[in-house]
């Protein structure tokens, strides 16, 4: 590994969330009965003419801007010719030398903690092909079936520069790309349904060498975790091959997740010649400055920028900021809650540790939480005002989860008792002080953090009912006295 440097580039296909297909009025829908969302246009029957879906162009432009690409004023659709049973037209409408957007980037965290910029060569529009079904039928051993519903589904293909150097960087790039696409709401990025698909080009070269090594392409891996594993495997395989005196062949390889290895699928010694030519049935796509400006105005605050702002605004750490921005919808809900609470930081704490911890322990998603955002805000405010202790909050949250009731209802009913009588609290403090002379000595010798020990002991003695603010104040007073 020390002798070699991996060079990785990623190609990501993303289905756009339009209601209809790219060039016809058929529903763009996953999971329909096979061959029900089809028409002469998406089947490419003779004489049928494509009409470009404006929404697809809006989404492609939005994604391009979110990825910091330059949007081309005039782009050209082209035919990519090849034969495949699930491509009845014999060509895909794509873009070739004049794609809709180029020269973008995504910043990813590097191993040393700094941010590294990964270039995006191009983003182009194209249509999806249909699907061959090789399994699941009684006669699957001898026949394959075709479902052409996917023909004509609008796609964008996002091609990175070969800037990625480690499987971890590839994982981060994909994670951030997906996050940006979800924030801009151009795709649901559902990998199980094939809305987001990734191919990786990978080669290795001796460190210090300028020229790239021969690359292999790993295709259609269905999770980011598997991409990372496939790249790790490929790097090792290629280095071993070269070290043993062999050479890497240019080929397409498939990842087998059960065996944890890649297999050669087909040689790519000769570059494919798709005989691209401009699509004669579609005029050049011309985007006015006004159209692009409108999309620019629609861009949401992007995840990385949002995290930076939230860290500053709510005093969060980086990890908490990631948790709270996991989806745009969740971040919106958190911010609305944080702004209505007395102390936003408390809302973040409760969401992440108290609520998040319990959801995780029970294997629940955020949407399945018995405690609403309003409940979280109430809990944060009660804690902030010292009306409940953190121990009481934990108990009430436990009741919420046990009964499937919101915190607001549980709090109204239980109204946990709180001791706000100074003399009662002082009496308990006196007892704890008397029982722990060693800790008192430590405190008086200057170890002020020992105060926390006394607060904890008294809180325990009061069964979590001592008013926390008052308790803190009285403990300090007693110890200083
Ligand atoms: Zn159609």
Global structural class: alpha+beta
- Binned strand content: 15-25%
**Which small-molecule ligands are present, each listed once?**
zinc ion
| Number of continuous helical runs | 16
Task: Describe the protein's topology.
Layout (H helix, E strand, L loop, with lengths): L3 E12 L24 H4 L10 H13 L3 E2 L2 E2 L1 E5 L9 E5 L5 E9 L5 E13 L3 E3 L11 E3 L6 E7 L6 H18 L11 E11 L9 E6 L2 H20 L7 E6 L4 E7 L9 E2 L6 E2 L2 H10 L4 H12 L3 H7 L3 H13 L3 H18 L11 H12 L5 H14 L3 H8 L7 H14 L1 H8 L6 H11 L6 H13 L1
Parallel strand pairs: 12-13
Antiparallel strand pairs: 1-10, 1-11, 2-6, 3-16, 4-5, 4-15, 6-7, 7-10, 8-9, 11-12, 13-14
Helix pairs in contact: 2-5, 3-4, 8-9, 8-10, 9-10, 11-12, 13-15, 13-16, 15-16
The site of zinc ion has 8 residues, from helix 1.
Structural commentary:
The chain is of the alpha+beta class. It contains 16 helices and 16 strands. It has helices at residues 40-43, 54-66, 167-184, 224-243, 289-298, 303-314, 318-324, 328-340, 344-361, 373-384, 390-403, 407-414, 422-435, 437-444, 451-461, 468-480; strands at 4-15, 70-71, 74-75, 77-81, 91-95, 101-109, 115-127, 131-133, 145-147, 154-160, 196-206, 216-221, 251-256, 261-267, 277-278, 285-286. Helix 8 (328-340) packs parallel to helix 10. The longest helix has 20 residues, at 224-243. The mean pLDDT is 92. The site of zinc ion has 8 residues, from helix 1.
